[in-house]
C-alpha cells in the first residue's frame, strides 16, 4: 500500500486516540451503593475531608477522641484534594457513581444546594438537628427549599484587615478606606499598596466582592446581579486599582494566600481576607503588622451595612450511606462546643457555634472577638443548585473588570444575562 | 519480449494470494492472540468513551439534575453549541492559538534540530539537556511560568526592565501562554525532526556540494523534502496538542481575563466537570474530535510524499 493512502488514516487514528483520551469522560449513573460497612458489632464509616497540615492533624486528633468515646464506631478518614475545585470533582465522581461512601463529608458552604438538588445528600429533617445553636447565615447556606442538608462546622467570615499603627481610627465608610490608604502610603514608604484583595479569576474574587458589596447595600443572588448597589461595589474595587491607585494591578493574580503575604509582610495598609490572616499575624512576631492588626467588617456607605462574606465548611451525610446513625454521631461530636474550641485554638478555624466564643477561647486567641462580630454580618453567596455556574459567570465578569478589559456596567449586565439564562 | 509473471502470481491460492503454509497460519494466529489484549484495552479506553460520549451528546445528561435527564434530545446540544457565542469565540481562539503556535514552534524547532544535527563539542550533552523541558510535567512548567511572569517576583519583568502585569491583559496573557507552551514543546518537535535529519544519507549532501549547491538550495531542495515524513508526524502531534490546549491555560490564566483565553478544551472541562452537563459537554467533545480529525487529515494530505518507486 502506498504511503499516500495510509498516511491520512494513521493521522486520523492518532487524532481519535489523542482526543478520546482527553474528551471521553466516562460516567455512569448506575452503580451499587457501597458503604464502609459493619463488622463484628462495630461500624466503620468513611469521612471525606480536605484538610492538610494543621487542619488535617486536628481532624485526626478529633476523630481519635471520637472513636475513644464511641468504641463501636471506627472512622476511616479519606483525605481528598485541598484544592476546592478538585475536591468537589472527587466527591461528585463518587456520588455520580452511586457510591455509599464517604458516609459523611466536609462541604464548602456553596455546595449543599447543588448536592441537595442532585439527591446526593441526605436531608437532616429526620435527625432533628438543633440548628438554632449555629450562626444563622451558615445554616441558611446549608439549606435548600426549606430543608437543612448540612451542619455548620466552621465559619470563615471575610472582612477588612487594617494596620492600627498606620490608621489610628477605624474607617467609617468606603471613601474613608480610600483616604486612609492614600495617607498611609504617603506616610510609610515601605508600603507597596494601600489595599490588597483577591482579584484573580477564582472563587475568592467573589467573596472579596461580597465583603464590599454589603457596605454599598448590595445583595447578590441569582436573580439580583446587575443592581446599582452591586455595580457600585464592583466599581469601588475597580477604582481602587485604576482610579484611586491604592491597589496594584498585580491583584489580578492574587488569591487569599498572596493577600495574606502582602499584609503580614507589611506591604499593605488594608487587606480584604479571611480571618486566618489574624491567626498568622498573631504568631508571626517578625511581621510589621504584628500587634497592629485590626479586623472589621467593611465599613458601610450611606444606605449600606457593614460588609462581610461568608466562607467556611459544613458537614453532611451521603444520601446513600447505610451508616446514617454513626455518621450523625460524628457530625454532632465534631460540632460540639468543646471540639470546635479546640480546633479554633489549634488551627484558627472559627467556630460555627456562637456559644463556642468563650472567654477561654479569647484568652488563647483574642482576635476571635472580632471574628464573632463579623460572623454577625457575613452574607452567604447565592444559595442555588447552580451556584457553580453562577460563580463562573461572576468570575468572568470580575476578572474582566479587574483587568480593565471590560467596563463595570457591561460586565455586570453580561453576567446577569448569563446567570439568568443558566437558571432558566 | 514478453515477460512471464512470477509463478506465485500466476498460480496463487483461492483468493489469488500465495498459498499459506500451516506454520505461517499458526504464527498468524499466535500474533493475533498476542495482540488481542492490547486491542481490547485500546477499545476499552478509546472506542468505548468515544461512542459513549457520542451517545451522551444526543441526550439530556446533566448529572446535577434529578429530573428530565437521560432523554433523547436529538441535535439540541449541537444546536445550542453552534448558537453559543462562548463556544464560537473559544473555537476561534483555539484555532488561532493552534495555528500561530504550531507555525512558530515548528520553525524554531527546525532551527534547533538543524543545530543539534551539526557536529560540535558537547553535542550529546546538549541533546539531552534540550529534552528537559519536555520531561517536566505541564502543570509544573505552567506553574513555574506563571511565577516567572509575576509582576513582582518573576524574572521576566526584572530582566527586561518592564512593569507589566502579564496575566491581566488579553495579548500579554496569550504571549505568556505561548511562551510556556513553546518552552515545553519545541524540544519535542526538535527531537522528532532531529531523528528525521539523522536518516537522510550524507552522500546526498556530498553530491550536492560537489554540484555547487548553496546552503539554501541544499536545505530547500534536499533537507526539507526528505524531512517531510518526520515533519508530518511532528505537525500532527503538535497541531492536536495545540487544538486540545488546556493545562497551560487552566494553570496560568483560568481562561481569563474574562473569557479572553478560554479555549475549547477549557470550555469542555468546565461544561463536564463544573456544570456536570455531560450532554452538552459530549457535543463539545465530539466537535473537538471532528476538528482534530480534520486537522490531522489536512496535515496528512498536505504532507503526503510521492512514492519514490
Description:
The complex is a heterodimer of chains A (424) and B (309). Chain A is of the alpha/beta class and 424 residues long. In chain A, 44% of the residues lie in helices and 15% in strands. Chain A is built from 16 helices and 11 strands. Chain A has helices spanning 3-23, 53-69, 84-96, 112-118, 136-141, 174-187, 203-213, 228-242, 256-264, 276-283, 324-334, 337-347, 359-364, 368-375, 387-402, 408-422; strands at 38-39, 42-49, 73-79, 104-108, 143-144, 147-148, 150-163, 193-196, 268-273, 293-296, 309-317. In chain A, strands 1, 2, 3, 4, 7, 8, 9, 10 and 11 form a 9-stranded mixed β-sheet that branches. In chain A, strands 5-6 form a two-stranded antiparallel sheet. The N and C termini of chain A lie far apart (56 Å). In chain A, 54% of the residues are buried. Chain B has 309 residues and is mostly helical. Chain B has 14 helices and no strands. Chain B has helices at 7-10, 22-57, 76-83, 85-117, 123-129, 132-135, 138-148, 155-160, 170-198, 202-210, 215-243, 247-252, 264-274, 278-302. In chain B, α2 (22-57) packs across α14 (278-302), α4 packs antiparallel against α11 (215-243) and α9 crosses α11. The longest helix of chain B has 36 residues, at 22-57. Classes of the chains: A alpha/beta (424), B mainly alpha (309). At the A-B interface, α1, α3, α4 and α15 of A face α2, α11, α13 and α14 of B.
Amino acid at each position: 500500500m502506498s504511503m499516500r493512502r495510509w498516511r491520512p488514516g494513521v493521522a486520523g487514528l492518532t487524532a481519535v486516540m489523542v482526543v478520546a483520551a482527553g474528551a471521553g469522560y466516562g460516567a455512569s449513573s448506575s452503580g451499587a451503593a457501597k458503604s464502609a460497612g459493619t463488622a463484628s458489632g462495630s461500624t466503620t464509616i468513611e469521612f471525606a475531608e480536605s484538610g492538610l497540615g494543621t487542619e488535617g492533624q486536628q481532624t485526626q486528633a478529633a476523630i481519635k477522641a471520637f472513636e475513644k468515646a464511641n468504641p463501636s464506631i471506627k472512622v476511616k478518614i479519606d483525605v481528598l484534594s485541598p484544592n476546592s475545585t478538585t475536591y468537589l470533582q472527587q466527591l461528585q465522581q463518587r456520588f455520580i457513581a452511586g457510591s455509599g461512601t464517604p458516609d459523611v463529608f466536609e462541604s464548602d458552604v456553596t455546595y449543599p444546594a447543588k448536592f441537595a438538588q442532585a439527591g446526593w445528600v441526605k436531608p437532616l429533617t429526620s435527625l432533628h438537628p438543633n440548628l438554632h445553636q449555629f450562626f444563622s447565615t451558615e445554616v441558611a447556606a446549608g439549606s435548600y427549599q426549606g430543608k437543612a442538608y448540612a451542619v455548620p462546622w466552621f465559619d470563615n467570615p471575610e472582612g477588612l484587615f487594617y494596620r492600627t499603627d498606620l490608621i489610628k481610627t477605624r474607617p467609617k465608610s468606603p471613601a474613608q478606606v480610600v483616604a486612609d490608604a492614600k495617607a498611609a502610603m504617603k506616610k510609610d514608604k515601605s508600603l507597596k499598596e494601600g489595599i490588597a484583595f483577591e482579584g484573580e479569576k477564582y472563587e475568592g474574587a467573589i467573596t472579596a466582592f461580597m465583603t464590599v458589596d454589603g457596605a454599598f447595600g448590595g445583595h447578590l443572588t441569582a436573580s439580583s446581579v446587575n443592581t446599582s448597589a452591586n455595580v457600585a461595589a464592583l466599581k469601588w474595587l475597580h477604582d481602587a486599582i485604576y482610579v484611586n491607585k491604592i491597589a496594584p494591578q498585580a491583584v489580578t493574580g492574587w488569591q487569599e494566600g498572596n493577600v495574606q503575604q502582602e499584609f503580614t509582610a507589611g506591604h499593605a495598609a488594608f487587606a480584604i481576607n479571611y480571618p486566618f490572616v489574624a491567626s498568622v499575624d498573631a504568631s508571626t512576631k517578625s511581621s510589621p503588622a504584628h500587634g497592629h492588626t485590626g479586623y472589621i467588617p467593611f465599613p458601610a456607605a450611606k444606605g449600606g451595612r457593614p460588609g462581610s462574606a461568608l466562607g467556611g465548611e459544613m458537614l453532611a451525610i451521603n444520601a446513600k450511606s447505610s451508616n446514617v446513625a454513626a455518621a450523625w454521631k460524628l457530625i454532632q461530636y465534631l460540632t460540639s462546643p468543646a471540639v470546635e474550641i479546640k480546633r479554633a485554638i489549634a488551627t484558627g478555624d472559627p467556630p460555627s457555634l456562637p456559644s463556642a466564643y468563650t472567654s477561654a477561647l479569647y484568652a488563647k486567641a483574642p482576635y476571635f472577638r472580632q471574628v464573632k462580630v463579623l460572623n454577625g454580618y457575613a452574607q452567604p453567596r447565592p444559595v442555588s443548585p447552580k451556584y457553580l455556574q453562577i460563580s463562573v459567570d461572576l468570575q468572568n465578569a470580575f476578572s474582566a473588570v479587574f483587568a480593565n478589559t471590560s467596563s463595570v456596567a457591561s460586565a455586570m449586565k453580561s453576567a446577569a444575562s448569563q446567570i439568568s439564562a443558566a437558571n432558566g | 519480449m514478453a515477460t512471464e509473471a512470477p509463478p506465485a502470481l500466476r498460480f496463487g491460492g483461492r483468493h489469488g494470494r500465495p498459498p499459506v503454509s500451516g506454520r505461517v497460519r499458526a504464527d498468524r494466529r499466535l500474533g493475533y492472540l498476542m495482540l488481542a489484549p492490547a486491542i481490547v484495552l485500546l477499545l476499552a479506553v478509546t472506542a468505548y468513551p468515544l461512542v459513549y460520549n457520542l451517545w451522551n451528546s444526543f441526550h439530556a445528561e446533566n448529572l446535577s439534575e434529578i429530573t428530565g435527564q437521560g432523554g433523547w434530545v436529538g441535535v439540541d446540544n449541537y444546536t445550542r453549541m453552534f448558537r453559543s457565542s462562548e463556544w464560537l469565540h473559544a473555537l476561534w481562539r483555539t484555532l488561532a492559538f493552534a495555528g500561530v503556535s504550531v507555525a512558530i514552534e515548528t520553525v524554531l524547532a527546525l532551527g534547533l534540530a538543524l543545530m543539534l544535527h551539526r557536529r560540535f563539542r558537547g553535542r550529546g550533552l546538549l541533546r539531552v539537556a534540550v529534552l528537559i523541558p519536555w520531561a517536566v510535567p505541564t502543570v509544573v512548567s505552567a506553574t513555574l511560568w506563571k511565577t516567572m511572569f509575576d509582576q513582582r517576583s518573576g524574572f521576566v519583568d526584572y530582566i527586561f526592565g518592564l512593569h507589566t502585569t502579564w496575566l491581566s491583559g488579553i495579548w500579554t496573557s496569550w504571549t505568556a501562554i505561548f511562551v510556556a507552551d513553546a518552552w515545553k514543546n519545541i524540544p519535542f518537535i526538535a527531537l522528532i525532526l532531529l531523528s528525521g535529519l539523522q536518516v537522510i544519507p550524507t552522500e546526498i549532501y556530498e553530491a550536492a556540494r560537489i554540484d555547487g549547491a548553496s546552503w539554501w538550495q541544499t536545505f530547500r531542495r534536499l533537507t526539507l523534502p526528505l524531512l517531510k515524513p518526520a515533519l508530518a508526524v511532528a505537525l500532527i502531534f503538535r497541531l492536536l496538542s495545540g487544538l486540545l490546549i488546556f493545562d497551560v491555560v487552566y494553570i496560568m490564566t483560568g481562561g481569563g481575563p474574562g473569557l479572553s483565553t478560554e479555549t475549547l478544551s477549557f470550555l469542555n472541562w468546565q461544561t463536564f466537570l463544573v456544570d456536570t452537563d455531560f450532554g452538552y459537554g459530549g457535543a463539545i467533545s465530539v466537535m473537538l474530535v471532528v476538528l482534530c480529525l480534520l486537522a490531522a487529515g489536512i496535515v496528512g494530505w498536505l504532507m503526503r510524499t510521492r512514492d519514490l518507486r
